[in-house]
Amino acid sequence: MKTDTLTTHSFLIKQLPTATAFIDTNFKLIYASDKWIEYFNLEYHASIDKYLFDLFVEYDEEWENCLKNCFKGSTEQGLQSKKNDIGEEKWFEWSNVPWYDEQENIIGVIIKTEDVTSRITSELKLEKLEDLFKEQAEISKVGTWEYNLITEEIIWSDMTKKIHEVSKNYKPNIETAINFYKQGHSRNTVAMLVHNGIKKGESWNTKSQIITKKGKVKWVISAGKPLYKNGKITRLIGTFQDISKEVQAEIKTKESEQLLRTLIDNLPLNVYIKDTESKKILVNKAECDYLGKSHPKELIGKSDADIYNKDIASISRDEDLHVMKTKKPILAKRTVNIKKDGKSTSFLTSKIPWLDINNQSQGIIGISIDITDLIQKEDQLRDLINVTAIQNKKLINFAHIVSHNLRSHTANFSMLLDFLINEKEEDEKTRIMDMLSHASDNLMDTLENLNEVVDISTNVNLEKKPIGLNEQITKVEQSLAAFLHKNQAKITNHIANDINVKAIPAYMESIILNLMTNAVKYRHADRDPHIILSARILEDRTTIFSIQDNGLGIDLKKYGKKLFGMYKTFHNNTDARGIGLYLVKNQIEAMGGNIVATSEVDKGSTFSVYFNDKD
Amino acid sequence: MTKINSIYIIDDDAITLFGIKKLLRRTVECNNMYEFKNGKLALNAIMHQIELGQSIPDVIFLDINMPIMDGWEFLNEFLKLPIDKKIIINIVTSSIDPCDKRRWMEYKAITKHYLEFKNKPIFSIDLEDIKRIYLAS
């Protein structure tokens, strides 16, 4: 009977939907539901009638004490976590109650166990989330708010209150809340946005200013969105963020940007920054002006190849790469930029490497100063110095000639006069007198020569006129007719009749006369003089007139430097004065032209006159 | 009267030639007095004399500004010639250019010959212009 009852109980308890076990006062497991067995991953038949603590790997002293209390009549409850075989943490809620028989004697304990793992983990998660949310609000200074349209109640989060600098128990309403916004633009904007949120269901996100309870002005971002219930807007919720620091930083950045911009735009230098591709990422006003652009936007992203001709762009790119590679600046280098329209500008350019915090090149900073005017002035100055130097040299040379030649004549006078005073013999006196008169003639000649030279140097304003080259030659030939005939001179003229040169007529005549006379005067003893005249026009409109002879020729290696010098003679001719070529050269140079000679001893000489037709 | 074997006068100016000869006649007796119109002619004559083994001039009067070969060019060539005896060379010029004086000093420093510098006009020729008895070898 007793066994039957036991079996029936056992059968019933086995099927209980909850995890339940019965132990006797000796901790022996009497009954257990399948659920309980399953819970602890046990085996039914191997567990019944066994000592409870033998069933578990770990002995739990607390549990034993708890059960012992139950034997004395108390009820125990608790929450406990246990790791199962595969290491998962399981949470159990247990209750141990005394097991009474019909006579109310305690004969054991009924153990009820419930798996609350999923409930506990979600509770833990929520707790964690709340902590996180608080922390996040603290860090990002983002607060929240909620406006219940039905109760008209406004709830501010702690952070929202903190931003407003109100106490934790402050209770705002819609009016006081909106009044925190700064009067004017901020307040109007927010009021309108809240209104639209309520009426039209529009969400918002706006930057505006508030004045806190303590009177501090703050920049905030407030955002809001409506929530619906049964198709009607019942609440507005949103966030509230203090961005004063960011705004301040932004203002500071803008201010320093503005300062920098003002500075570089007012520098009388072209300033630009290029990236590693040599594309411009910043240009100042001077650079814009130089490149004819009204706004930096038109230059940003452009490379030199877009602005300058190919060669210039390629040189510039090479410089950029060099600076970025070596991280060393190019300083005050003279460069010439030629824009696509062909306009050339000279610059003094510096290129400085632009390094990031890791000391890597991220581009270059270029500074250029336009020195075109300076160079032009420099060139003009140099030209002027050259002209002056030449003039000065001529002047010294001339002074020299004058002093030397006049001195040699006066020396002769002194000597001859000294002889004359002391001479007794009449014949010798007459001889000395003859010499004195000869010396006087020589002096007159010299003075005339010098006068001619002075004329050329002083008559700088004589005007050039177009002169038919052949007409002038014919004129000279006529005046030299007797001289040419006497020397059996033959002239071959290859010059076209339409060739004109711009020259001073008097000089032109002197030049042709001197060159033609020389060609005959320094004739070769073995042959009759033959003069060949020719002319050609160069591309730059310079006309070259050449006169070639078959005369003695001259060793230019030896005498080239002296050829056009004053009082330089190179042959034994008694009528050589050493003035002709000197005058010719001076006259040609006075007209902006040039004369060159080629010659071979015993073959002949060619003198070529370059006429400058431009000015 | 002092006797000099041979004197060369190198000058392209007829009046100077006349003057020098006239002054020389007052001081010395010389049967071989030669005139040359430029340095080249004089140099050729001297080189010819050396080739023939004949005596070269004892005294030279030398002008600077001359055609074809001037006084300096002549000196340059002359100083290269293999001449044993010391010759008196009188540069006679109307030039008062300091440059010419400097060049004379330069030549004087490198030559064993007696190189003198005289500015025109000259009114007399002294004995020491033509003879250095005490130094003559």
Describe the structure.
The complex is a heterodimer of chains A (about 625) and B (about 140). Chain A has about 625 residues and is an alpha+beta fold. The longest helix of chain A is centred in the middle third of the chain and has 51 residues. Helices cover about 45% and strands about 25% of the residues of chain A. In chain A, helix 14 runs parallel beside helix 19. Chain B is α/β, with parallel strands linked by helices. In chain B, strands 4-2-5-6-7 form a five-stranded parallel β-sheet, sandwiched between helices. A two-stranded parallel sheet of chain B has the order 1-3. In chain B, helix 4 links the parallel strand 6 and strand 7. The interface between A and B is medium-sized, with 25 and 21 residues.
CATH fold node name of the largest domain in chain A? Heat Shock Protein 90
Helix content of chain A: 40-55%
Across the major sheet of chain A, the strand order is: 2-1-5-4-3
The largest β sheet of chain A comes out as: 5 strands, antiparallel
Radius of gyration of chain B: 14 Å
**Number of helix segments of chain B?**
4
The secondary structure category of chain A is alpha+beta
Q: Descriptors for this entry?
A:
heterodimer, A: 615 residues, alpha+beta, Beta-Lactamase, five-stranded antiparallel beta sheet, 19 helices, B: 137 residues, alpha/beta, Rossmann fold, two-stranded parallel ribbon, 4 helices, 7 strands, 22% strand, globular, transferase (chain A)
Give a quick precis of the structure.
The complex is a heterodimer of chains A (615) and B (137). Chain A is of the alpha+beta class. Chain A has five domains: 2-115, 2-Layer Sandwich (Beta-Lactamase); 123-248, PAS domain (Beta-Lactamase, 2-Layer Sandwich); 270-367, 2-Layer Sandwich (Beta-Lactamase), CATH 3.30.450.20; 376-457; 465-611, Heat Shock Protein 90.
How is the topology of this model organized?
The complex is a heterodimer of chains A (615) and B (137).
Chain A: H1 2-14, E1 19-24, E2 29-32, H2 34-39, H3 44-47, H4 61-71, E3 76-83, E4 89-100, E5 106-115, H5 117-140, E6 142-148, E7 154-156, H6 158-164, H7 174-179, H8 185-200, E8 204-211, E9 217-229, E10 232-242, H9 244-266, E11 270-274, E12 280-283, H10 285-290, H11 304-307, H12 310-326, E13 330-338, E14 344-355, E15 361-370, H13 372-422, H14 426-458, E16 465-468, H15 469-479, H16 481-486, E17 490-493, E18 500-503, H17 505-521, E19 530-537, E20 543-548, H18 556-559, H19 580-590, E21 594-600, E22 604-611
Parallel strand pairs in A: 17-19
Antiparallel strand pairs in A: 1-2, 1-5, 3-4, 4-5, 6-7, 6-10, 8-9, 9-10, 11-12, 11-15, 13-14, 14-15, 16-18, 19-20, 20-22, 21-22
Chain B: E1 2-3, E2 6-10, H1 14-27, E3 28-29, E4 32-36, H2 39-52, E5 59-62, H3 71-78, E6 88-93, H4 98-110, E7 114-119
Parallel strand pairs in B: 1-3, 2-4, 2-5, 5-6, 6-7
Helix pairs in contact in B: 2-3
